[in-house]
Design a protein that fits this description.
Layout: E1 4-5, H1 6-13, H2 17-25, E2 33-34, E3 40-42, H3 44-58, H4 63-72, H5 76-109, H6 116-119, H7 125-143, H8 159-176, H9 184-197, H10 201-213, H11 215-224, H12 228-243
Antiparallel strand pairs: 1-3, 2-3
Helix pairs in contact: 3-4, 3-5, 7-11, 8-9, 9-12, 10-11, 10-12
Length: about 250
């Protein structure tokens, strides 16, 4: 099979030459080789990597998150399957929101109020509560323990569940706002959660790595916010780097 110049890749994919160079500079996608004429050439393997990058971009992953995701899942088929799962989750959330929004528009056009029990069906609260129940069953089956309660802070909700949900909600919000792993508020939230759970920075990083590699926990976090599991890992590793003196606090 032939190789392709930057201009040809840009024409096929819609990705600009400047973007391709940036991907190379940050270590995300390198050309197969650079010719004697100084042109960069991309083969099928590089085009497949670019396809995976663009799928992650559609999922609103940052470049650092994409790099981490591709390094943690070097197998192309496994990576594509994971991307399909994430995109399918995103599609289902979008469909639910669109249905709720369409009903709200139809009601508003008629001058009617939407039924309060249906008003918030498009949002993720109920789905997250179901996933929490699945997590409890998973922990019970695999580790012999079962946290109690739900995400809404009812009287039966354990302090651990309340703290976990509050922490994950904060991290999801920080990710959405584009706060980096080194953001002081994010690092403070990570450290506070670690103290509550009785974990030092090393334990926090180990648990975050487990959440990324464990299909069940990764799926739960990604369903809550796309990229959340990888974001928590990046923040945990930043906290560990600070604790080890590798970065300035």
């Amino acid at each position: 099979m032939r190789d392709y110049t930057v201009r040809e890749v840009a024409r096929m994919t819609g990705v600009t030459a400047k973007t391709l160079y940036h991907y190379q500079r940050v270590g995300l996608l390198s050309p197969a080789y650079i010719g004697e004429n100084g042109y960069r050439y991309y083969g099928v393997k590089e085009l497949e990597q670019l396809q995976q990058i663009l799928y992650y971009r559609e999922l609103d992953f940052s470049l650092s998150q994409i790099k981490r995701a591709m390094e943690s899942e070097p197998n192309r088929l496994g990576c594509l399957r994971e991307q399909h799962r994430l995109l399918e989750q995103s599609r289902k959330r979008t469909v639910r929101l669109l249905r709720a929004l369409e009903e709200a528009i139809a009601r508003a056009e008629k001058g009617e109020s939407m039924d309060t029990e249906r008003m918030f069906q498009g949002f993720d609260g109920a789905q997250w509560e179901d996933q929490l129940a699945q997590r409890n069953a998973y922990l019970e089956a695999n580790y012999g323990c079962r946290p109690v309660g739900n995400i809404h802070g009812d009287q039966g909700c354990s302090r651990v569940d309340e703290e976990t949900v509050a922490f994950q909600a904060y991290m999801a919000g920080a990710l959405e706002l584009g706060k980096g792993p080194g953001d002081p508020e994010v690092r403070q939230a990570m450290a506070k959660h670690g103290t509550f759970c009785g974990m030092d920075a090393q334990r926090m990083a180990e648990r975050a790595r487990f959440f990324v590699t464990d299909d069940f926990h990764r799926s739960m976090l990604e369903a809550h916010q796309t990229g959340l599991s990888y974001y928590i890992l990046a923040c945990a590793e930043a906290l560990l780097a600070e604790a080890e003196g590798r970065i300035q606090s």
